[in-house]
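Notes from hallway chat w/ T.B., transcribed later so I don't forget. T.B. wanted the structure written out for a chain they're using in a teaching module, and asked if we could keep both sequence and structure tokens in one place. Agreed to drop them here.
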Amino acid sequence: MNTAKNSAATAAKANGTANGATAKPTMRATKGGAMETTGKEKKEVAPANPLQNTLKVVHRLHQKVQQRTNLIAVIDQLESFKIKQSEDGTGESEYMGCEITIKDDNRHSWTTRNTFVIEAVTKYVESLCRGKLVEIEAEIKLPAA
């Protein structure tokens, strides 16, 4: 019997209700003007302005769709590149129309016409874009109502 009282007292202390007191949830205003419950019992916060929240969701989805469109355009452009490989395996060819340049913020640049390097870079960038496309497409969904 004594152990039942001790376990009840321990549970009451853990809940903050020792000595017969009860936990009282309190209300406070959020930034949007909605009221929310603090304490043990949390209630769902009602949106301050449902139209504003809907517009934010639509804007975020629009941005994701734009990112998707841009990634598809980059992937299509990279797939359309025609890079002739040299027959001697050096990457240098008589057709020197391929060139890649990398520039940094300090205006330093590096340029190469090595077709093996150019092909590897374009394949790598295409792979990165395809991975990002999968991520973006997974994020384009309507939230549950």
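Follow-up for T.B.: The longest helix spans residues 50-79. Might be a good example for the class.
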